[in-house]
Amino acid sequence: MRKLIIIVLVLVSYVQSQICPSYASWVAGSTNACQCNNGYYGTSPSTCKACPDNSWSTQGSTNTGPSITVSACNQCAPGYFVSTVAVTTPGSEAAAKCTTCGTTHSTPNTMATTQQTISDCNTCMDGYYLTVVAVTGGSAAAATCQACASQGAITRLRATDTPQTANDCNLCLPGYWVSSAFAQGGPAIRCTACPPGLTNSASATGATGLQTIASCDTCPIGFYVTAIAQSGGPVSCAPCPPNSSSPPSKNLGFCTCFDTNAPALSSSVTSCACKTNYFGSVATAPLAASGCVLCNDPNANYSLINGKCACRANTYGTPTSNATTPPTSSTCYNCPTDATSPAGTTEKAGCNNSKILLPLVTLLFSLILLL
Ligand SMILES: *[C@@H]1O[C@H](CO)[C@@H](O)[C@H](O)[C@H]1NC(C)=O
Ligand SMILES: *[C@@H]1O[C@H](CO)[C@@H](O)[C@H](O)[C@H]1NC(C)=O
Ligand SMILES: *[C@@H]1O[C@H](CO)[C@@H](O)[C@H](O)[C@H]1NC(C)=O
Ligand SMILES: *[C@@H]1O[C@H](CO)[C@@H](O)[C@H](O)[C@H]1NC(C)=O
């Protein structure tokens, strides 16, 4: 129970540290960006809105971008069919009109953008199996479906033209483990939920044999594995430190900082900051430009001024930022003896004799007063 509470807390903090705005998620690959989730649309990832009236969109450039309108919602949510196609005519854009498949838990086998009829509701939603196939023609009707006996159980095959039996519920969803095995002609599979956030890597390969909670072996995106799943226990996960992330994983390892100039995280390096000789602020989103500047002139002030390496106080010059090899001699020069300069001085003229001038002025002033 305590473990469960920890995982729940961890999930809450993960949600708070997600890198994409609400209703958007990170899409890796050619796009490499936050995009509105399926079922949402927006002109940017920060303005994602839900598709209206059970219409639906597919995540990607088709539902997120400057020219996106409500017509991106050109499909229907599971359990609905397209009764009127979306309108893309500029000025009168409209989402697809969607009609419910009814109370039979059926859904179209394909998410169409073209017009459909009730007989396109020819397969069953997740967690249901097909008992009566859809009817086309005069007395058109949606398919009829029955709930699988166990929560989390699904059919391996989305049948459309052959009725199934309860025994066809022979697979558990990735967030479940097989607590009672499926047998051909025998009892239906039983599935038990993994602790929140964890998934079962074997369900992706279609495992049907008896499992234990140790099959809940994979941490979600944004978490790293602190202890692998083993007999009796599921995987243990901890959230990635701020400004880092990790894909879903079942192996021991660490998250990766977004900034390419941050060191690799490890058991001793637990936060993302610029690596040795680099200064600045680390990138706060995946693939964002590095915010770390290399200052490898030992005379440069180890804090940036306007994003560039600057000479220390009492020296002047223009040190190289991001030099691939350290300068062989310093690019910052000492001010003349007794002259001072603030950090970041570039010209020799910026060194003045304040160190000697101020006491002299004071001395002269005192002398005048004495006289
Ligand atoms: C992420 O990095 C930025 C830049 O260094 C820093 O200001 C911010 O505090 C970091 N985020 C968190 C949650 O620590
Ligand atoms: C230094 O390199 C970083 C990338 O590592 C870049 O973001 C930054 O703009 C560069 N700064 C200068 C002053 O060249
Ligand atoms: C670096 O410059 C800052 C002001 O920009 C100053 O406060 C600091 O003392 C300087 N550090 C060194 C080592 O000179
Ligand atoms: C020395 O120069 C700095 C600017 O570089 C200036 O702020 C300061 O007032 C000067 N001091 C004297 C005594 O002239």
> Which secondary-structure class do the elements indicate?
mainly beta
Bound molecules: 2-acetamido-2-deoxy-beta-D-glucopyranose
| Helicity, as a percent range | under 10%
Please tell me how large the radius of gyration is: 32 Å
- The averaged pLDDT comes out at 89
> What is the strand content?
15-25%
Name the strands of the widest sheet in spatial order: 1-2
Q: Using DSSP, what is the number of strands?
A: 28
Uncertain regions: pLDDT < 50 for 5+ in a row? 1-17
C-alpha end-to-end distance: 87 Å
Largest sheet: 2 strands, antiparallel
Given the C-alpha coordinates, what overall shape results?
elongated
Number of separate helices: 3
Protein name: Immobilization antigen
Organism: Tetrahymena thermophila (strain SB210)
Keywords: Signal
